Amino acid sequence: MSRHLGRSGRLAAVAIGAATLSLGSLVLASPSASSSTLAPRSTSTVLKLNHFLCYHVVARGFKPPTNVLLQNWLQPTPFAPTFGTVSTHCNPAVKQVTVNGAVKTYKIIYPDAHLLCWQISYKFGARPVYLTNQFGKGVMTTTGGPTSLCLPSWKKRSGPPNVVKPTAPPNLDHFACYPLAPATSKPVFILPPVVKVADEFSALRLQSVKIDQPNLLCIPTTKIASGVRYTVHNKNDLSLTCFPITPTTYWKSFFDENQFGQGELFPTSQTSSSGGLLEELCVPTAAHIG
User: Fold this and answer.
1) Where residue 47 falls among pLDDT bands split at 50, 70, 90?
2) What is the DSSP-derived secondary structure letter of residue 58?
3) Neighbours of 141 (CB within 10 A)
4) 35 vs 92: CA distance, rounded Å
5) With a threshold of 0.85, does the pTM exceed it?
6) What does the domain layout of the chain look like in residue ranges?
7) Which pLDDT belongs to residue 232?
8) How far apart are CA 51 and CA 80, in angstroms?
9) How far, CA to CA in Å, does 52 sit from each of 106, 150, 162, 242?
10) DSSP-based three-state secondary structure for 139
């Protein structure tokens, strides 16, 4: 999420209370286990996960601690990434698709659980990964080390959240995000021509977007900072596969708070290598090493 996220168009300053959001649930297929995979996933123990709309942002007021260690199923040995600046903010989102004439809506599960992501770098080789989500399943390749670390975060429109305890939403993992590339020349996922999305920035009004093949895989990750270990809720928790989409509505500024502090955020436009404006739709995904 550190290099592909952004949006353009008229800025919208729309506030909305969490009470207007409805809860929903997700049902994902799980790949079978083998010697190279994680254990089979259980819907009774896996933490349910929102869809997210993610925006490129600049920020002021945060300070990551030194000597942060990360660990996940792709990199089981703890490693110390180099931190850059805040790069991305992600809102819980509604997704709606039409398949064979039937409309399917995926609602928000945890309306207060946001993500704020920092650019990070750490040298790591390419790995094949098997992905299963609502757009299909197949093998892709992580092309290098993680490019961002996303922290569970509180968000507020008018000023700092000032949440004393807990300092982050308790129903959301940390995520390390890895760049993705196709493993073959054929598209991995079958994508509808139009997907409708909505979040707090659009006052839950659905907006039509075009979607491209994914470019990021965000994996639940344990973070160790200042001697405190923030573990993944369950070893089989879902990952997020992030798909570039055309821009939607966003606010001019807002505030986030997490374990790295609190500060003000300002969404900005960012373009792809071909010059198109981008943001991301991140979809809950069952993932393991392919």
Assistant:
1) confident
2) E
3) 18
4) 34
5) no
6) 18-289
7) 95
8) 28
9) 11, 12, 23, 9
10) strand
Tell me the HSE value of 20 on the side-chain side, using a 13 A CA sphere.
12
Contact 278, 5 (CB under 8 A): yes
* Residues contacting residue 152 through CB under 8 Å, at least 6 positions apart: 113, 114, 115, 168, 169, 170, 172, 173, 174, 258
Residue position matching structure tokens 């039409």: 98
Q: How far is CA 14 from CA 20, 52, 81, 90, 205, in A?
A: 13, 18, 36, 16, 11
Q: What does the block give as tokens for 220?
A: 């639940």
Sign of the dihedral defined by the CA atoms of residues 280, 285, 287, 290, in that order: negative
Q: What whole-number distance in Å separates Cα of residue 218 and Cα of residue 280?
A: 12
Distance CA 269, CA 5 (A): 8
SS (H, E, C) 122-137: CCCCCEEEEEEECCEE
